[in-house]
Fold:
Amino acid sequence: MNVVLLGPPGAGKGTQARRLAERFGIPQIATGDILREAMASGSELGRRAKSYYDRGDLVPDEIMLEVVAERLRQPDAARGFVLDGFPRTVPQAEGLDRLLDGMGRSLQAVLLFEVPRDALVRRLSGRWVCRASGHVFHELYSPPQVPGRCDHDGSELVQREDDRPETVERRLEVYARQTAPLVEYYRARGLLHTVDASADPEEVGRRVEAALRQAGVL
Ligand code: ADP
Ligand code: AMP
Structure:
């Protein structure tokens, strides 16, 4: 299963990518998570990415392509992957095509998550993530059993710096300008499948599987 989840920040890509990864035994490759880990560890990648990330801007394509190339070469990605948050620009999509081509592989489907803007803002403003491994909660829509603690590993839940209202506005603008053109890019290649992701997570999960069946991936 070589699939991409595409959609604006807060659309629920991470939530569904994790479910697919667990259910099908393939890695969720979330470039935002990779950058947050790099920034937390103070690595070279983290230092290069930080100023872009903090503003809600995209990290340059060359950096992101390097990150994804290295990740796709890991043995656990040999049987497939769910890309979440990548590609985010046309050059990234072109780079991904070249990369997969060089490995004798190709994308099977791109699922576009559609959610109205006001719901995106509500989802982002109530998002809490666990420090240990990025499990995602929402204070109203999927609250943890114990407030402030992750259900899976008991670690502390925190709000992302870039989920502050000013940065959210910027990230939504960046999505509209730089990432939305990918809808046409993948539609033209016959890979695009739209998912109405405004329902609850269980229902969206069913719609995702229906879209993957329709795409011939399942
Ligand atoms: P993305 O990866 O697209 O930015 P997330 O999966 O992190 O989005 O979800 C954003 C927030 O919305 C999180 O707090 C998550 O718990 C919540 N969420 C995810 N899917 C749904 C849904 N279908 N309905 C309501 N809230 C959701
Ligand atoms: P996300 O966790 O997907 O919401 O991403 C958080 C932030 O990480 C984005 O606002 C960007 O600054 C950066 N980022 C994540 N993925 C990419 C990517 N594919 N290209 C450029 N920047 C990215």
The CA atoms of residues 49 and 60 lie 8 Å apart. The chain has a mean pLDDT of 97. DSSP finds nine helices and eight strands in the chain. The pocket of adenosine monophosphate (ligand 2) is lined by residues 9, 31-32, 35, 52-53, 56-59, 64, 85-86, 88, 92, 162, 171 (CB under 6 Å).
